């Protein structure tokens, strides 16, 4: 692994907008993998790790971000091997932090270091710090949903937009998920119930056996999200098998796209849709 992966570092003080600009830096360098606050991100999806911002204390947050635990290290190493990563961008608040992460994950030494001052103005960094300090918000370089050409109606934060580097240049995605640390004085981070509903509706639209999801109720208890769904099944399908597959897909998509823990999903078939030609 050490000979195959080229390691880049993106460094800057906490709250200056590193995560917000991570996808731009990665795109310019042709990097598909990012490590940020305990997460391993490939393109626009979390593929391994747990957000350090979910940790109950600041001390635990630091430990998670540095991958101090053996099980966390193994999870990231296996994912990098499975996806055959050739390059990776590690985000950190200092050179020492990035070097520590690389060492804990058995990665080669950093070959190139990019600093936040290379890509952001003083005014932009001040604004990022203001938002962090006054609103307790943190941005991770993962969109609310993976960008899919056949996905319509997804929610975008006002700051989540497509940006162009200039005429004729390939645009990059600056869409991000905004979360709030659980230990923040502003309270726990939350994701709108409407986000879960849209993911569930998307999954239903991708399954021809499901006519539609007619009702979705979301309840968040501590760090778990419990979901109740009512659906109509297309005529001619085994109801039990369809509900089982739909439940599996919903859980996978929600956890993958939001990094939230799904505690329980209850799905009820409320009717059968019979096409007119039947």
Search tags:
35% helix; six-stranded mixed β-sheet; Alpha-Beta Plaits; 8 helices; single chain; alpha/beta; elongated; three-stranded mixed β-sheet; 278 residues; 2 domains; 13 strands; 27% strand
Number of domains: 2
Radius of gyration: 20 Å
Strand count, sense and closure of the main sheet? 6 strands, mixed
Gap between N and C termini, in Å? Answer: 57 Å
Overall helicity? 25-40%
Describe the protein's architecture and organization.
The protein has eight helices and 13 strands. With 278 residues, it is α/β, with parallel strands linked by helices. The protein has two domains: 6-179, no CATH class; 193-273, Alpha-Beta Plaits (2-Layer Sandwich). It has a six-stranded mixed beta sheet, with helices on both faces. It is elongated, with a radius of gyration of 20 Å. The N and C termini lie far apart (57 Å).
Write the layout of secondary structure elements.
Blueprint: E1 6-11, H1 18-29, E2 33-36, E3 39-42, E4 45-49, H2 58-66, H3 70-82, E5 87-92, H4 95-104, E6 112-115, H5 116-119, H6 122-135, E7 138-140, E8 162-163, E9 172-173, E10 177-179, H7 193-206, E11 210-221, E12 224-234, H8 239-258, E13 261-273
Parallel strand pairs: 1-5, 1-6, 2-5, 12-13
Antiparallel strand pairs: 2-3, 3-4, 7-10, 8-9, 11-12
Give a summary of the structure in a few sentences:
The protein has 278 residues and is α/β, with parallel strands linked by helices. It is 35% helix and 27% strand. The strands form four sheets. The protein has a six-stranded mixed sheet with strand order 4-3-2-5-1-6, with helices on both faces. Strands 11-12-13 form a three-stranded mixed sheet, with helices on one face.
